[in-house]
Design a protein that fits this description.
Layout (H helix, E strand, L loop, with lengths): L4 H14 L12 H8 L3 H13 L3 E4 L3 E4 L5 E2 L7 H7 L4 E12 L2 H6 L7 E11 L2 E10 L17 H8 L4 E9 L3 H6 L8 E10 L2 E11 L4 E2 L8
């Protein structure tokens, strides 16, 4: 099979990233340098770099240059992960911003998720997590007041809502569902991304002694986040 010129350039850049020639954050050769090196047109080089950027391998900054993309953080699906702890473990700065917090009447779909009756009182909070001042996760959370009656009274200045719930209620059943979605206009605005960029949506429900505790939906830009796990299966 014949390899096209732009695929040869992609392979060259990819190999340099994988073998550490260009580590994350490293500036790559310019388009003109690659044109001279491979003896191809600038259009061919541009196509190769554009496809690598779309794949998340590199980041192109207009007027500045092309850089190796930072490795996307990966969160586990086998436990209730604290995004704040994950970010701090990478040596990065974590910030949390509350968008809204209120006591509302449960909508029919929310009531079903938490085994409640429509119209019953429920806590609702929307917030954003930042990594090094870049929005990485939009969190939409509902909490059962019966299980955590003082949830809305917390100031969350030293802990996130998720961390507070983990320390307050022992969850003995967890459900994780992951979907690939496109962001709404509002979600894209909050996450500072384009509406044409895909997102990973993690929906989590937790129970304690068969009573629903919380339902939360986390939307993450796919270019900045990944989900996965490594484990040893039981015999």
């Amino acid at each position: 099979m014949t390899t096209t010129l732009h695929e040869q350039i992609k392979a060259y850049v990819t190999q340099g990233i994988l073998d550490g020639t260009w580590p994350p954050g490293q500036r790559l050769p310019s388009e003109l340098e690659l044109v001279a090196q491979f003896g191809v047109s600038r259009m061919t080089v541009n196509k190769a770099l554009r496809e690598l950027a779309n794949a998340g391998r590199i980041v192109r900054v207009a007027g500045v240059g092309t850089f190796v993309a930072e490795e996307k953080p990966q969160s586990t699906l086998l436990q209730i992960a604290s995004i704040a702890s994950e970010i701090r473990a990478r040596g990065h700065d974590h910030q949390w911003r509350c968008l809204s917090r209120e006591r509302v009447a449960a909508a029919p779909d929310v009531a079903v998720w938490l085994s409640m009756l429509p119209g019953q009182s429920i806590f609702h909070m929307r917030s954003v997590h930042f990594e090094n001042e870049v929005p990485i996760q939009l969190e939409d959370r509902y909490v059962n007041p019966k299980m955590v009656p003082d949830f809305l009274d917390q100031d969350f200045s030293n802990t996130t809502p998720g961390e507070y719930l983990l320390s307050s209620v022992q969850a003995d059943l967890v459900e994780h569902v992951v979907d690939a979605v496109m962001p709404t206009t509002e979600q894209a605005r909050i996450l500072e991304m384009k509406t044409t960029e895909p997102c990973l949506q993690l929906t989590r429900r937790t129970w304690s002694r068969d009573v629903p505790v919380t339902w939360v939906r986390c939307v993450n830009p796919a270019s900045r986040y990944s989900l996965g796990s490594r484990f040893r299966p039981a015999a």
